[in-house]
Input
Amino acid sequence: MQQLRTQIARGDAAAAELTIDRLVENKVERGSFSAFAGEATLLRGDLVEARKWLAEGDFDDRSAPLGYRLLAELEMREDNLDASAQALAKAREAAPDDPRVWVAIGRLRYRLGNHLAAIEAAGRAVELGPDDAEALRFRGQLARDIEGILPAVDWFASAIKSAGDVPDLRLEYAATLLDAGEFEEAQAILSQTDDPYLRAVALARTSKFFAAREALELTAKEDRETAAARLLSAIIDVELGNLESAAQTLDQLARQQPANRRVRDLLAYVLSRNGNQEELIFRFADEARGPHGSPWLRTLVGRAFEAQDNREEAAEFLDLAASDQSALSLIDGDDARAAGKGAFATRNSIRAALSAGNVDRAIQEARRFSEEYPQSVDAASLLGDALLMRSDPVEARKAYQRAAQMRRSWPLLLRMAAILDRSEAARLVAEYAAANPLNGEAAAMAADGYAAAGQWREAAASLDRAMENGMRDVPWVLAARSVAARELGEGDGVDQLDWAIEAYETQRMSQPAIAALLSALPEEDLQLRSELAAKLQALAGN
Output
């Protein structure tokens, strides 16, 4: 029995199977090891065999909590959520103070969309097992949703300290470190794994693209053909200048995943880089003009028209990009889908009503949805959206705050910031940016708050971090960096002018970019200053 537990603990399912066979041959009481046999079969992914060991509930008193917990996991894997809940009720009855049972309860609640109840279960698990690795791990997973990446890193670090060398936990810790921007530490962990795909991810995140390509080529063929691996391959090709190869891969992915906007925008970028302006316009102009066009896509299409000397069409798309309202697009969610077809259909009905401007119907449905699923992020967020659309910021704020207790996404935080006073909104955004250091948009918006408070050194640092994380092509960010350079006296005015020129070259119809350049130009440059002032006045509608 001890040998069996040791084999399971180190993940050796094959050896565990041999040990189970010996226990059966020696006619050992089935109830003393059936839970462990079920765990071993789950370890190797054999759900049919696992059910033979677990379904009857033939466990002795000592192994009953584990057995029922594993039965609950089996039922959850097969989407039998009611049966999973029944098994967990038995596990809780057998061991009400077992932190692992509470972790399993929390995971089921989360799967059902009962996020607040899942958080309560995670807290109970940590309270009962402050050194239990699974309790700490689950709490870290929830922290990613609620508090941010850096708090999650701390929870995973505690879990690692308690668990020792558990491979899948170490990999999850490394993934969280990558999202926190701790690339070197993450790579040190991933370098110890024999999984070439994970090494490729870590190497790409640290800009070692040749090594990343080599690691990816060592990945098994079936793993290389997954969507994630193909996207990684395309990104590596972009960075290494293999644009034709990247375009082919992204084109295939875009056809397979037409709703994937990241793939769409990256394909548009590659077409732009490769000089395929006609194809870019043909494929993406209508989408960029529509409600789902991102500022990035609109800018690329606008530049493609500029390259064809079609300035009228270019101005339309660049103006759309400059006045982007994507922060107010509907919040994506997934717990309604988990809750069942009825909840999923209700969510979609509310979203359709909001999109059509039928606010009264949306509010009625959202209230019923929120009452039926009071612990659902989707329900609370959609109710907030509907109330905000009716210009009821007080009630919208209450709904958003309830949603934020369960999952604090960036779109949700933008909603909350929009209905707070400026200082409170700035604090909220700064806290989010600090906890999620790779979110470039959050860093840029945090800089705006610092600037308003006269904290120019913090503003400049935040803008620099934003540009390191995808905001280098956003004209207002570059313009703001020009202003920060002026306020800090960087480069005796040269830095201010350089940033302003870059902002203007990025988008010549951007009012912040024009204003920044106008401010940075020498006073004696009368002709250009006059032209810029007239252009700014015309764009402002004065």
Q: What stands out?
A: The radius of gyration is 27 Å. Residues 324-340 have pLDDT under 50 and may be disordered. The chain is about 75% helix and 0% strand.
